[in-house]
Amino acid sequence: MYKIVRKKELNSAVTLMEVEAPEIAKACKPGQFVILRVDSTGERFPLTIADSDPEKGTVTVIFQVVGRSTRKLNALEEGDAILDFAGPLGRPSKLDGLKRVCLVVGGVGSAAGYPLAKELRRLGTKVDTVAGFRTKELVILEDEYKKVSDLYLLTDDGSAGKKGIVTDRLKKLLENNAYDLVIAVGPLVMMRAVAEMCKEFNQKAVVSMNPIMIDGTGMCGGCRVTVNGEIKFACVDGPEFDAAGVDFDEALQRAKMYRKEEREEDCKLL
Amino acid sequence: MKNRTPMRELDPRERIKGFSEVALGYSAEEALLEASRCLDCKRAPCVTGCPVGINIPKFIKGIWEGRLKDASDTIYEANYLPGICGRVCPQETQCEAKCVRGIKGEPVAIGRLERFVSDNWRQEIRKAPIDKEKVAVIGSGPAGLSCAAELAQKGYAVHIFEALHAAGGVLTYGIPEFRLPQGVVDSEIETLTRLGIAIHYNTVIGRTKKLQDLFNEGFQAVFIGTGAGLPKFLGIPGENLNGVLSANEFLTRINLMKAYLPEYDTPLRKMHRVVVVGGGNVAMDAARSALRLGVEEVTLVYRRGREEMPARREEVEHAEEEGIRFMLLTNPVRILGDSERNVTGIECVRMELGEPDASGRRRPVEKSGSNFEITCDCVIIAIGNNPNPLLTSSMPDLKTNEKGCIAVDENLQTSVLGVYAGGDIVTGAATVILAMGAGKKAAREIDRYLRSRHAL
Question: Model pTM?
Answer without folding.
Answer: 0.92
